[in-house]
């Protein structure tokens, strides 16, 4: 099973959509909530090169944000990464 990490904030609707897609795939993931932790936010920005949430990593590969995750799924690229 893939190691999935997703950086989120508690009020982000895109984070909720991304988590819903992953849950619908039946996979577990490590949610890293960055709301009140500047160190985690900095870590996310260093790893992804982006400031926005969510930022999703599958087996250390940066997938991107919510739209990127859904686009990857739409072209059939998500399931192979999850298995």
TrEMBL record:
GO biological process, one term: deoxyribonucleotide biosynthetic process
Gene3D superfamilies: Glutaredoxin
Annotated PROSITE patterns: GLUTAREDOXIN_1, GLUTAREDOXIN_2
Molecular function in Gene Ontology: glutathione disulfide oxidoreductase activity
Region forming the signal peptide: none
Transmembrane segments: none
GO cellular component, one term: cytoplasm
Function field: Has a glutathione-disulfide oxidoreductase activity in the presence of NADPH and glutathione reductase. Reduces low molecular weight disulfides and proteins.
Identification of the protein by name: Glutaredoxin
Organism of provenance: Mangrovibacter phragmitis
């Amino acid at each position: 099973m893939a190691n999935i990490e997703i950086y989120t904030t508690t009020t982000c609707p895109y984070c909720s959509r991304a988590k819903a897609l992953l849950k619908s795939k039946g996979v577990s993931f490590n949610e890293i909530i960055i709301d009140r932790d500047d160190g985690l936010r900095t870590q996310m920005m260093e790893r992804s090169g982006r400031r926005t949430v969510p930022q999703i990593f599958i087996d250390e590969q940066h997938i991107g944000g919510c739209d990127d995750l859904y686009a990857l799924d739409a072209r059939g690229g998500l399931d192979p990464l999850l298995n």
